[in-house]
Amino acid sequence: MSEKELGHDAEKGHGKSSVEVGTVGVLVEDGVVYDNEHEVFRKDDDAIDYRTVGMKRALFVMFKVVFSLGILSLPSTLFSLGALGGALSVIGWGLLNTYCAILIGNFRHNHTTCHSIVDMGMILGGKVLKETCGVLFLLGWILAVGASILGVSTGLNALSSHATCTVWWSFITYIVVALGASLPKFHSLGWITWIGSASIFTAVFIIVIAVTTRDRPAAAPQSGPYELGYFVIGSPSFISGMVASLNIFNSSAGANSFIPLMAEMKRPKDFNKAVIIVMSFSGACYIAFSLVIYRWCGQWVTSPSLASAGPVIEKVCYGIALPGLLAIALLCLHVASKYLFVRILRKSPHLQAKSAIHWITWFSCTFGLGTLSFIMAEAIPVFNYLLALNASVCFAPLAIMIPGACWLYDHKSYRKGSMGQKVFYWSHYSLLLFGAFFLVGGTYATIQSIITSNQTNGIGKPFDCANDA
Start and end of every Amino acid transporter transmembrane domain (predicted)? Predict the structure, then answer.
C-alpha cells in the first residue's frame, strides 16, 4: 500500500491507526502518514510528541534562522564588494545555499534515520566524518549564538546609554537565551519566531527609511566635506573580499540547522517547498534593504546595521529588534542543544520519556552550550569577524561540502550512466573543492583581519569593559 493510499484510507476514519508496510511501521493520524520505525522521534501516546511542526510554523522558524543575523551584517559588506558586486554575491550565495539545502533535504528523505547533518556524515564517511561533523555543527551554532549574544548586548548598551559593562549585558542575555532555548520542541518556539521575525523586519525597515532622510550618514563628519565611499563595483583585497563574501554566505547558510527541524515536521515532504519560499523571500529582502542602506551610508554604515541612522533611531530600532535578536539566539542554541541531547539519549528510553534523566540532560545541554556561547562572544567581540569565522570554519564544510557529498552518495549510478549524467555527477565534485577553498582561504582571511584590526584599531580584550564608553 502506498503512502498516498494510506492517507486516503485514514481520511475515511477518525483518530489513529497503525499499519504495517513491509517491515516499516507506519502510523496514520488525521490523514498524515508517520514512519514510526525509522524516524528519530516516534508517535506514541506515552511519550513526548516532538513531531508537531506544520508548514507555517516551519516557514517562520526557517526565516528567523536565515534572516536575522544576515541583515545586520550585510550592508557593511557591500563597501568591500560594491553595490553591483554585493548584489550579485547575495544572489549567487542565495542560489547556492538554496540548492545545497534541497540536496540535504532530499538525502534526508532517502535516509529518514538522520536527525541532523551529523548523522549524514556517518552514512557518508563513517565515525571519523560523523565526529568531525559533530564538532563543526556544535562549534558553528555556538558561534552563531555568540554573535547573537553580542548583538543583543550591543542593543542593550544603546538602549541604556552604556549604563553598565557590556560583559554584564552579555551575561544577562545568556541567561535569558538559555531559559528560552530550554523549551523542549521547535513547535514550542513558534510564537517566539513569529514575534522575532516581525520585530527584526520592522526594525530594519525603519533603518532603511531613516537613512534616506538624513543629509549625510550619522557616523560621517557632520560638517565640511567628506567621502561617502559608495561604489558600484568595489576593488577589495583578497582578505577584505573574502571576509565580505563569508558574511554574505553566512547570511543564508543556516540550512544545515533545518534537518533537526525536518525531523519534527508533521510532513517532511513539505521541506523543499518551505526552503524555496524562505530563501526567495529572505534573499529579496537582503538585496533591497542592504542596497538602500549602503547607498545612503557608504563606508559609514555600521555593523550591526541598526546604528546607521544615529543614536535616537538606533535606540528605537534596538528597542523594536530586541525580541528578534533574542529569538535568533535562543533558536540557534535550541538547534545545537537538540543535536547534543539526541546524541546522548538516542538509544535510551529517556529520549521521549517524561523522566528526570530526560529533563536533566536537556537543561544541561542548553545551559552548558549557552555558557560556551557566552565565552565565545566575549573572546571575539567583533560581530562581522565572529560571523565570518563561523562561515569559514564550520559552514563551508557543513553547508557546501556535505550537501555535495550527499548528492554523490545517492547518485552513484550517474558515474556510469549517460553522458549527461556523467557530467552532472562530476560537476558536483566542484562543491567539495569550492567548500575546501572557502574553508582554508576564508579562515586565513578572517584570522588576518582580526590580527590587523587589533593592531590598528584594537578590538577589545576578552571580558573587558574598557571600550564601553
Answer: 52-448
